[in-house]
Structure to design on (234 residues):
């Protein structure tokens, strides 16, 4: 009975390993996991280790070599990620930006993204987007304030966050004019640079689009709250 239980435990370990293999690969294909992240490497490490354990009751040399190879490759990948992350450094304003709008960016991806843009000081009156004109840059307003107008009517204000995120990847027309209302600190990256980055790195595109969608959602929530407050005062 004890021998049977031990055998069943090893078989269960092998089945768990197969589930992890298939599950991690499915999550990768659906875009939920990134192939360059720790999670995928750790799942593969666990999966190969479990399958290797299961071979103790039904040893197969070819299968063992495959699992050992997966373990070694996964460990090398994890070590490489740790080494790359340890070498990346961010300034104080870069860290603040990443925390606010790009918290899911792995350090190496964030560094590549930031290296393609520039920090600038904008004076009052500078236009970031103009209604009806193509959006050519993505901006992050770190400090200051910008006014949002449509049809010559002010419809809102931005104190921090992204500007141009809805149309920058497609170079579509801006739905409103965003103009600096007080001296401001900005990060800007061109739409061309973003399109090149997204074309080369599908993981980056997913992370960028998710971050921009979340920032747009936050703006809409703030706008709805402001309209509700105004309606309550009337």
């Amino acid at each position: 009975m004890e021998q049977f239980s031990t055998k069943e435990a090893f078989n269960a370990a092998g089945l768990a390993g197969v589930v992890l293999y298939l599950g991690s690969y499915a999550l990768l294909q659906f875009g939920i996991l990134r192939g360059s992240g720790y999670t995928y490497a750790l799942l593969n490490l666990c999966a190969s280790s479990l399958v290797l354990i299961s071979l103790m009751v039904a040893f197969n040399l070819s299968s063992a070599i495959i699992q050992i190879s997966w373990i070694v490759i996964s460990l090398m990948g994890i070590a490489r990620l740790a080494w790359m992350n340890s070498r990346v450094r961010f300034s104080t304003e870069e860290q603040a930006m990443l925390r606010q709008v790009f918290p899911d960016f792995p350090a190496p991806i964030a560094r590549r993204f930031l290296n393609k843009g520039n920090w600038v000081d904008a004076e009052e009156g500078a236009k970031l987007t103009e209604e009806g004109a193509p959006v050519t840059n993505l901006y992050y307003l770190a400090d200051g304030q910008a006014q949002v107008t449509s049809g010559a009517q002010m419809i809102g204000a931005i104190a921090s966050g992204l500007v141009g995120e809805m149309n920058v990847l497609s170079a579509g027309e801006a739905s409103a004019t965003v103009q600096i209302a007080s001296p401001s600190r900005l990060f800007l990256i061109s739409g061309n640079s973003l399109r090149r980055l997204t074309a080369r790195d599908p993981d980056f595109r997913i992370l960028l689009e998710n971050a921009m969608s979340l920032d747009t959602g936050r703006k809409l929530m703030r706008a709805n709250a402001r309209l509700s407050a105004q309606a309550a005062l009337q």
